[in-house]
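Narrative summary of target 7.
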Amino acid sequence: MSEISDAQIALLSDIGQRAPLNLTPEKRLAIEALLTAGFITPSNETDADIAPYELTAKATRFLSERGAGLNEA
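Modeled conformation, tokenized:
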């Protein structure tokens, strides 16, 4: 994944906030791409049914460098 779309950045922000994702087919494709690129990982937390993914350090760095906090995209 060379470029991350605005939709994927918004998805990273939602995942970081542990917001319910309401997965559409488009979001599922974006999730697969983010998993493959190492930006997210499946959650091990007890609330994994609500928040099934979590950000990796790579994603946190990316959002920080981009200047996007977890309350914005």
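DSSP finds three helices and two strands in the chain.
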